[in-house]
Amino acid sequence: MTSASPENPNPAHPLPGASGEAPLLRTPLYLRHQALGARMVPFAGYAMPVQYPEGIIAEHLHVRAAAGLFDVSHMGQAWLTGPGHEATARALEALVPADILGLAPGQQRYALLLNAQGGVRDDLMVARPADPMADGRLFLVVNAACKEQDWLHIAGALPEGVSLEVEDRALLALQGPQAAAVMAGLAPDVVELRFMDVTETRIAGIDIRVSRSGYTGEDGFEISVANDDAGALWDLLLTAAQVKPAGLGARDSLRLEAGLCLYGHDLNQEISPVEAALTWSIGKRRRADKDFPGAIRVTEEIARGPLRKRVGLLPEGRAPVREGAQIFDDAGELVGEVTSGGFGPSVGAPVAMGYVVSEFARPGARVHVALRGRKVPAAVTPMPFTPHRYRR
Amino acid sequence: MADTRYTKDHEYIRVADGIGVVGITDYAQQQLGDIVFVELPEVGRSFGQGDEAAVVESVKAASEIYAPVGGEVVEVNAAIEGEPAVVNEDPAGRGWFLKLRIADAAELGGLMDEGAYREYVATLG
């Protein structure tokens, strides 16, 4: 038996650091994952829990049914600080096409760092604190694998008076329909938040920054906490009967069912926001002003339609199709490629997303996905595969 | 009496009367995690030692199952195609993959016995 996956390219040596590469970084929760019996794998330079003993499917289903607790402390967190909201927002708007200026206090927004050709350097969350005393500050959360380049890129593009302070903090995600009930007993004020609202509060004497958001399609919270407090907060959240730990494996299957992009797979430096079906993340004013990196390509694609587009795919049968599989039309012409694929535990069948030429980017279009020397029929389908259940 | 042999790729073959029952070890199923799909060969196909004989897919990845020795497939376990989780639950029993009519019993000599396999797994951490 041999296998390979992005998280564990060398299954014969599954232990972190065993392959002689640079030692893996550990989050403040590393020992807790070990004590819980997690299987640790290298991910973006960190030893991270891919699953706990119950397994990916059980963890996935528990998040959809109750609540799961994820350690996502490998992600990058930073403050962007300027003399006032307008100055800071404009500094960031030079790098992303989202409307940052129009972000209200206490709100978070999804944004894309673009390169000069309109390709995606990274996707990130941008939050404007509710506290008026924090005027001119924006809180950024970026992908672990991109964070060093992101910080260099952002810091190198800032005008006089606006600065970037990278923070070494932990990040926990509590996700699922029971997440709010769990938080209600600990920090009643966060229960009032709606999807993509942010606030700062305390739980049992621990200062936290909370956003009502996540990467699972479920209601839930992402909680930024000082490294020294992370263990106590993790323990506290796990004492709730509804909460079980969930690893990166479940995080991946949950986000795939939710139709959410994974950077480096569904997004990269060649793919534009329009191709990625993320045009909704481009501000209306920004489209009119065309004042963001790659605006020529992006606005052209909005006007005329992109050559290729990200779509959902439902393969026939039970065999999962995986990232990199080629997609063909009835005539055998290559029309696209799978960028994420696997088994959807809540769907109960294989699910995938990928890019197809625009002609096939419509629900119901029939395509064929290459799999081990044969072709599996698949239907282009709207995403998400499982309905989002955010608190709007 | 059945004699079970193991490969470094974590397949087992349980041999009796020239027929080998092939599956994956408990270590393998643990490493794979939840198994969601199994693809088995047709009865009557012949494989050489080390040929890809079946495919097993977990939530995360696809893995190939290699023939521990050469031979002809005389039976496959269709039950695990319908219920792949059985491979996780009982890899050495109900979760078997296929039965081979062994072409050359001498090939078994290159495989590990249970003690050697246990030692081998221990070295993997």
UniProtKB/TrEMBL annotation, chain A:
Entry GO MF terms: aminomethyltransferase activity
Ranges for domain GCVT N-terminal: 29-284
Enzyme Commission number(s) from the entry: 2.1.2.10
Catalyzed chemical reaction(s): N(6)-[(R)-S(8)-aminomethyldihydrolipoyl]-L-lysyl-[protein] + (6S)-5,6,7,8-tetrahydrofolate = N(6)-[(R)-dihydrolipoyl]-L-lysyl-[protein] + (6R)-5,10-methylene-5,6,7,8-tetrahydrofolate + NH4(+)
Transferase listed as a keyword: yes
Record key words, sorted: Aminotransferase, Transferase
Domain Aminomethyltransferase C-terminal: 308-385
Enzyme class: transferase
SUPFAM superfamilies for this protein: Aminomethyltransferase beta-barrel domain, Folate-binding domain
UniProt record similarity statement: Belongs to the GcvT family.
NCBIfam families the UniProt entry points to: gcvT, PRK00389.1, PRK13579.1
Name of this chain's protein: aminomethyltransferase
Annotated source species: Camelimonas fluminis
UniProtKB/TrEMBL annotation, chain B:
CDD domains, A to Z: GCS_H
Gene3D superfamilies documented for this protein: 2.40.50.100
A Pfam family assignment: GCV_H
PROSITE patterns found in the cross-reference section: BIOTINYL_LIPOYL, LIPOYL
Keyword terms: Lipoyl
Lipoyl-binding domain location: 19-101
Keyword DNA damage set for record: no
Cofactor, free-text remark: Binds 1 lipoyl cofactor covalently.
Modified residues (N6-lipoyllysine): K60
Cofactor(s) recorded in Swiss-Prot or TrEMBL: (R)-lipoate
InterPro entries: 2-oxoA_DH_lipoyl-BS, Biotin_lipoyl, GCV_H, GCV_H/Fam206, GCV_H_sub, Single_hybrid_motif
Subunit composition and interactions: The glycine cleavage system is composed of four proteins: P, T, L and H.
Family the entry assigns: Belongs to the GcvH family.
PANTHER family xrefs: GLYCINE CLEAVAGE SYSTEM H PROTEIN, GLYCINE CLEAVAGE SYSTEM H PROTEIN-RELATED
HAMAP family in the record: GcvH
Task performed by this protein: The glycine cleavage system catalyzes the degradation of glycine. The H protein shuttles the methylamine group of glycine from the P protein to the T protein.
Protein name as annotated: Glycine cleavage system H protein
Native organism: Camelimonas fluminis
The encoding gene: gcvH
